[in-house]
Design a protein that fits this description.
The chain has helices at about 20-30, 65-70, 80-90, 95-115, 125-140, 155-160, 160-180, 190-195, 245-250, 265-275, 285-295, 310-315, 320-325, 340-345, 360-375, 380-390, 395-405, and strands at about 1-10, 35-40, 55-60, 115-120, 140-145, 180-185, 200-205, 230, 255-260, 280, 300-305, 330-335, 350-355. It is an alpha/beta fold and about 400 residues long. The protein has two domains: about 1-205 and about 390-405, Rossmann fold (3-Layer(aba) Sandwich), CATH 3.40.50.2000; about 210-385, Rossmann fold (3-Layer(aba) Sandwich), CATH 3.40.50.
């Protein structure tokens, strides 16, 4: 039997951006014949409420003193914030090193006792560094999973001092070279990790859970509500460009608005000032309610990264997979060569428009998207089955199980 220890900081009951991948893979790996243990921060009180089989063992490893320490150093205090930024600037990893070492200690003990392989999914990068440290000490093998790039992310260069950057690059190369193999969410990043010395690199993308697919819903316009296109998630300054959304708004029909589901931030306010009441901030919405609301939209929008970097070329916003569950048209505002664009064009109702394209070319892509947005109806059974085969978590879990079975401890 394949025995797997998943180490993930994000996991239910947490719903941060890193939790869905390990959660859904842990849910479906038992169907692939795997015995699964998850090492995370907090064990959910009722794993069954998240669809997690009873056979999956979940070990919580939250540092007990963290709450008391947080009370002593208030996160909002300006002096404490400055101190954290200064310390972080000179650290090769991040502020989660204490928990990461503790979690990996638990994971390697379980793996050694049960003959399991450890799959470590980042972020934070300190978790991968801890996997390397414990591997060198105990010999327990690990597979390094990169949900994001590490030292090749633009934010890394902006926020780390030169000595920390140099040390982190050496650390990352060691993590990659010592790993049994590397898995990553993007095929565009396979050459990157191969160049860092990985023994083998495999793509295991993010995806969606077919069990989350909502029931068909009527369009908003059919309920007397003005039509809208929707953007869900965070607009991150320095990683996402608002210019594509501004150009899109100029081409939308005057009675159509852009609904933004996510935390209010500077980029949204920037777009909102240009468009006035045609942009509506809807706040954070629970996942099931969000899918139902997105299904009522005329179409759904995602944006690419800024510049030509490993991150912008390879990143695939998780929202794109969740959009696919609604079966509504998807518009990706980014370059045709981006990995995210390649995913979107494989979707039967997917469209890509480059915000840097000339006006005529950009407008042509938007008009094609809007024509599709004016149509309703579910995907065909064959189309839905193809999506499930490509990006459904049951199939992704099968791929991961096959890879881990090849790399189980010898």
């Amino acid at each position: 039997m394949l025995r797997v220890v998943i180490v993930a900081r994000g996991f239910p009951p947490s719903f941060d951006s890193s939790s869905r991948r390990p959660w859904k893979l842990a849910k479906y790996l038992p169907d692939c014949g795997a015995d699964v243990v998850v090492v995370t921060r907090v064990r959910p009180a009722d794993p069954a409420a998240f669809g997690i089989p009873a056979s999956v063992e979940i070990v919580g490893t939250a540092v007990a003193a963290a709450g008391a320490q947080a009370a002593r150093i208030a996160p909002g205090a300006p002096a404490a914030a400055r101190a954290r930024r200064a310390l972080g600037r000179w650290s090769p990893v991040d502020g989660n090193a204490r928990w990461s070492m503790r979690a990996m200690a638990v994971a390697v003990r379980i793996a050694a006792e049960r003959g399991a392989i450890v799959w470590v999914t980042s972020g934070p990068p300190s978790l991968l560094a801890a996997a390397l440290w414990w591997h060198r000490r105990t010999g327990v093998e690990y597979v390094a999973d990169f949900r994001d790039v590490w030292t090749d992310a633009p934010v890394f260069a902006r926020t780390k001092a030169a000595p920390a950057r140099a040390l982190a690059r050496r650390l990352e190369r060691a993590v990659v070279r010592q790993a049994r193999c590397v898995t990553t969410v993007s095929g565009a990043w396979l050459p990157l990790f191969a160049a860092k010395g990985a023994r083998a690199c495999h793509e295991v993308s993010n995806g969606f859970d077919p069990a989350d697919r909502p029931a068909p819903a009527p369009p908003a316009a059919g309920r007397g509500e003005p039509p809208f296109v929707a953007y869900a998630g965070r607009l991150q300054s320095g990683r996402r460009d608002a210019s594509g959304l501004e150009r899109l708004l100029d081409l939308l029909p005057r009675d159509c608005r852009l609904d933004y589901f996510g935390p209010d931030d500077a980029l949204l306010r920037q777009v909102g000032r240009a468009a006035g009441p045609r942009v509506r901030a809807c706040g954070l919405v629970p996942f099931a309610a969000l899918l139902a609301r997105l299904q009522e939209a005329a179409g759904l929008v995602a944006t690419g990264g800024e510049g030509d970097t490993w991150e912008s070329r390879g990143a695939v916003p998780a929202k794109i997979y969740e959009y696919m569950l609604t079966e509504r048209p998807i518009l990706y505002l980014g370059k045709d060569t981006d990995e995210a664009a390649r995913r979107v064009v494989r979707y039967p109702r997917g469209f890509v428009a480059d915000p840097d394209a000339p006006d005529a070319g950009f407008a042509e892509r938007i008009q094609a998207f809007l024509r599709a947005a004016g149509e309703r109806g579910p995907l065909g059974a064959a189309e839905r089955a193809d999506l499930d085969r490509r990006w459904g978590y049951p199939q992704l879990a099968r791929r991961l199980a096959d890879l881990l079975a090849e790399g189980r401890p010898r």
